[in-house]
Design brief:
With 385 residues, the protein is an alpha/beta fold. The chain has helices at 40-43, 46-53, 71-84, 95-107, 183-201, 209-231, 236-248, 263-275, 279-293, 299-309, 317-334, 348-360, 374-383; strands at 11-14, 32-36, 59-62, 88-93, 133-137, 149-154, 157-162, 170-173. It contains 13 helices and 8 strands.
Length: 385
């Protein structure tokens, strides 16, 4: 296990009927801006409940944050924050709204050149202050409610950013707020959370037993309770386990002290930017082909994955590994996610353009060991057709 520092100050308020506690989570004198995506938070009464819980505070609204939050849209929120002297940001939605709110929290403290927030990769944004923010999760998937990361679309490319300044002060995880989600979004969230765990777990053996066992527990929980949540809207206990798994998948704990491989995400970001395919679906398309291509590189951990997560105990090493990858792809398919590029009308020409875009972005040496080059990316995508 590698040396590591671990710090996570986000207060989690988990369970049913917790919105009425908002009054105790936000300073009494704060002017609050509630940020959200489409009209569902209004249509299903969530926004009204939130505003009621905020009592006598002055509350402003900013809606219309896209599923892949656009830089230009978020600048409008920044202008509102600065004009109205907002003190506190409250994100209501899924990962896109939370990521967008984090960007607004940083940009509102900068006079100009807000795009520079996006050009630091996975190094901390070089700023010294941000507005405080909280989150109310309505779509479990990204773990953004308990981490320092965001991804923003700028000039038709997706850019990650990170800084401890955007740790949410609190996040409310009420499974009742997810009951109105379309099944497709539940499926996307399950796939996203599953692959968040995979990218931190399926790397190289490092004798990080605690992280491995946590990761395996999360994966098995998603395998068990993800499909139940997808199929049965009334099973609140399965929904609770899915929701907490999605948060735990990317709150920093399982990635502490281990190698991480975000290749699937980097390729998936380009697919979403180019073709508008939902983020979770792009990951599910790529991962099985990536694992087949990287079987030799990840052999030891793939065997561990096969035996501990998918309970495959018989056969040769090769048979176990193939079985685990096949079961993973079948799992995604069982959620209504088609894992073939041809289903999305993506062929050779589109694949070549995608790889060229990755080269422009400098995404030329991926994986936990930096040896996944663009020729390998091309092979992965071709085999996913």
């Amino acid at each position: 296990m590698q040396n590591f520092d671990y710090y996570n100050p986000t207060k989690i308020v988990f369970g049913q009927n917790r919105l009425n506690e908002l009054d105790n989570l936000i300073p009494q004198n704060a002017k609050v801006l509630v940020l959200f995506g489409g009209g569902s938070v209004k249509r299903f009464g969530t926004l009204a409940k939130i505003k009621s819980s905020l009592g006598k505070r002055e509350v402003l609204e900013f809606g219309g944050i896209e599923p892949n939050p656009q830089f230009e849209t978020l600048l409008k929120a920044v202008e509102l924050v600065r004009a109205e002297k907002v003190d506190f940001l409250l994100a209501v939605g899924g990962g896109s709204v939370m990521d967008g709110t984090k960007f607004v929290a940083l940009a509102a403290k900068q006079a100009s050149e807000h795009e520079k927030i996006l050009f630091n990769g996975f190094e901390p944004v070089p700023v010294s202050e941000a507005l405080p923010l909280g989150c109310i999760v309505t779509l479990p998937a990204t773990g953004s409610e308990m981490n320092t990361f965001g991804v923003i679309t700028y000039n038709k490319q997706k850019y990650p950013f990170t800084t401890p300044l955007v740790f949410p002060k609190f996040s409310v995880l009420d499974p009742d707020l997810t009951l109105t989600l379309p099944k497709e979004q539940i499926a996307n969230g399950i796939a996203d959370a599953f692959i968040h765990v995979i990218e931190q777990y399926l790397t190289q053996v490092e004798n990080a037993k605690v992280q491995d066992r946590f990761s395996e527990g999360l994966l098995k929980t998603l395998i068990e309770d993800g499909p139940v949540t997808y199929a049965d809207n009334d099973n609140i206990e399965a929904r609770k386990n899915f929701m907490w798994s999605a948060t735990s998948a990317l709150n920093g704990l399982i990635g502490a002290g281990v190698m991480q491989d975000w290749s699937t995400h980097m390729i998936g970001h380009e697919m979403t930017a180019m073709f508008g395919i939902a983020h979770g679906r792009t990951l599910a398309i790529i991962l099985p082909s990536l694992l087949r291509e990287r079987k030799a590189h990840k052999k030891d951990k793939l065997l561990q994955f096969a035996e501990r997560v998918w309970d495959i105990s018989e056969g040769s090493d090769e048979e176990k590994i193939n079985g685990a990858i096949d079961k993973t792809e079948t799992f995604f398919n069982s959620l209504g996610i088609v894992t073939k590029l041809s289903h999305y009308n993506i062929g050779d020409e589109e694949i070549n353009t995608l790889v060229a875009n990755m080269k422009k972005m400098g995404l030329t040496h991926l994986s936990e060991t930096g040896d996944l080059t663009l020729d390998i990316v091309h092979k992965i995508l071709m085999s996913a057709k």
